[in-house]
Amino acid sequence: MQNNKKPSVMFVAPSAYVLSGLATWLDYMEPGLGSLGWDVTIGLVEGPRHHRPEKYIVGHAHRSWYPISCKSGTQEGRLRAVEKAISVVNPDIVATVNMPDAILGAVRSRQYGRPELKVAMTVHGIQPDLYEDIGAYGDLLDRVFCTNRLACKLAEVMGNMDAGRISHVPYGVEFDGPAPRSEPGECLKIAYVGRLEQDQKQIFDLPPIIEALETLGVPYELMIAGNGPDEKQLRAEFGSRVDDGRITFLGFISPEELQRQVLAEVDVLLLTSSWETGPIVIWEAMASGVAVVSSNYIGSGLESALHDDDNALMFPVGDTGQAAAQLQRLWCEASLIARLRQAAYRLIEERYTIAVSVANWDRHLKALLEQPSLASAPRIGTQQASGRLDRLLGGGKAESLRSLIGSTGPDGGAGGEWPHSHGTTEYGNESFWTKTEQLDRRDAEGAAE
């Protein structure tokens, strides 16, 4: 890297999900790192049906972005698309965001004429297939960036990644200092914000929590922001409470609408998840002065950010009675919300502002640039597809022909166009979750800040 050249990074990310935590993170990363002297490009993958950068960019005004287009749906096509983007953008670092084929494409660029290119993977989840990817591609990766301390530990223990090549870089949120807040009025206003699905978010804990709250005699309103595959069943389980207005479904809302319609109006955010790597919405709630009642989800232990009866109220995952009891405390104990709010403000200011997040990324990206190149790494060749063209012509020529004739292949969904992982471990793998929970709880109280 020449001294007169700005350091540069290209984040390779999906474009199929216009409203997501990843999109919110990239929205502040580009200008934030830019203000610290980086050239930042958002590489948005493109496919024939689901990944559409031109639609994504309407809601995300990135100054510098590049479409990484593969219409054939083959792995070889995806690797070639990444190689082309690298040849045009010429970054010092390629950081992938749930895009394992971008790892392989970047490594192939590195072995064919770009030996100084650094290749990194960013980790935003605790699903087993992600750490299977790290284990498979660790010899190719210069660094892994994790947004949560448990994710760092999993990358080391389950992904067999050297701890010296793992960086902890939490998310950040806007925080302009404490905002004026009123105490609860005629009822306790509660918000649930997130995807409406059971596996991770445990949304079917919400109806029994509300039933227990009613038994305790706490007046309430519940606003639910988000959508997902289990919304219909959740509505049904709430019964007449939706019709009489005690519970309102808002659908998926933008970050601006979240602040205006939800966080500015409610008293408490309720989180029921089994695992999280943030979540960003907790930090957003705290920054807005909203109290947090949360499960002690996998991912909250080693991170050591949420502390019961200090900056949040906690309950065991799945313990709906305890969740309701914590909500009751907010209604009955006059000064509790104010006390939690002040501690939450301190946490956000010290650890989870956008400025802190960007400064962490700046420091760790610079360390990556100074890091010696990998001594040796497996070579990545032409990726073979299973179609008739490949058998007749070979993988390379077959892909060239597909590109020439505009072949698009079958519709495999967003994850078929650009797979989010190559791992095959099932999400519900019991041994993974048992080990993960053990890692998160061990010495959690002593985790470094």
Question: Can you walk me through this structure?
Answer:
The chain is of the alpha/beta class and 449 residues long. The protein contains 18 helices and 13 strands. Helix 7 links the parallel strand 8 (188-193) and strand 9 (220-225). Helix 7 packs across helix 12. The protein is globular.
Beta-strand content: 5-15%
Can you identify the CATH class of the largest domain? Alpha Beta
Question: What is the mean pLDDT?
Answer: 93
Q: Give the overall shape, derived from the CA principal axes.
A: globular
Number of helices: 18
Oligomer: single chain
Bin the helical content: 40-55%
Q: How many E strands?
A: 13
Distance between the termini: 33 Å
Overall number of domains: 2
Biggest pleated sheet: 7 strands, parallel
CATH topology tier name of the largest domain = Rossmann fold
Integer-rounded radius of gyration = 23 Å
Strands of the widest sheet, in order across it, are 3-2-1-4-5-6-7
Helix/strand/pairing category? alpha/beta
- Quickly give the CATH architecture of the largest domain: 3-Layer(aba) Sandwich
The poorly predicted ranges are 444-449
Question: Could you give me the name of the CATH homologous superfamily of the largest domain?
Answer: Glycogen Phosphorylase B
GO molecular function: glycosyltransferase activity
Keywords: Transferase
Protein name: Glycosyl transferase, group 1 family protein
Pfam family, one: Glyco_trans_1_4
